[in-house]
Each structure stands twice: as C-alpha cells, then as structure tokens.
Amino acid sequence: xxxxxxxxxxxxxxxxxxxxxxxxxxxxxxxxxxxxxxxxxxxxxxxxxxxxxxxxxxxxxxxxxxxxxxxxxxxxxxxxxxxxxxxxxxxxxxxxxxxxxxxxxxx
Length: 107
Known about the structure:
By secondary structure, the chain is mainly beta. It has a single domain, classed as Immunoglobulin-like (Sandwich), CATH 2.60.40.
C-alpha cells in the first residue's frame, strides 16, 4: 500500500484493513493498535501513536495525522502494531512496510 500526503497537511487520514499473510481480515476486538512511521534509511521513529479502530471485526484502522507528523517532506515506511487482549503483538503488514510519501508544499 502506498499513501501520499502534502507537507503540513493533516487530511486525509490513513485508513487500512489489516490482513494476515493469507489475506484473512484480522479481528481487532479488545485489541489496541499503534501506528509507527520512520524515514526510509532513517533510524529514529517519527511517529509512534495510537491508531483508531474503526471496525474491530472488519480489521479496519485509521490514523489521524497530527501537525508535526507531516512537517518534513520525504519518503517513509510505516506499520500498524496490534496488541491483542492476551498481550501478544503482531505487526501489519507483516511481509513488507507501508510506503508513505510526504510531498513538499510549494510555498
């Protein structure tokens, strides 16, 4: 999945359906989800924040950008980290990363 947003924008939100390696939707009932993002080639995490669960049984999550999340143009990798009610953790996508492009604003 690839997502593009302009520098300093906070809309649109990033919405995703979390699926396992076989394509089965993940049930997020009683789980918490965090969104992580860091620059391609970077070491520091730019975003580590709670994500909203929109439809637990349908595996749909949404991250609403904060103003400082998109203040630096560049290419980023991102993922959603799920903590299930039993304390186990699983990261999505689990076979790659989401690609986020923050395009420089014109002014």
